[in-house]
Amino acid sequence: MDILENIYTIRIHLDDTDEHNGALKVVPKSHAKGIYRPETINWGIETEENCKVKKGGIMIMKPLLLHGSNRTTNSKKRRVIHIEFSDKELPEELQWSERI
Fold this sequence. Notes:
Elements lengths: L1 H4 L1 E7 L11 E2 L22 E2 L7 E4 L5 E2 L11 E7 L14
Antiparallel strand pairs: 1-4, 1-6, 2-3, 2-5
């Protein structure tokens, strides 16, 4: 869990994204709840927000943030470059694919 809490994701958007072409939807502050399973979510208090990002825009998030996206309904692309960073070492039997 310590490793997951210390990963940051940078998403560089190559296309405009909105609710019509699958913009990321997030549950704000859900990353602070650890591993938050969909079946345990209280939708009476939680809300989803669409993360509209313009082409060339950058979004920074933690992967534990509850997130997802819908299918594109307007046939426009939603390409992103998705990069994850961590300063934590993995357990001995695992290795990062890229490491300095």
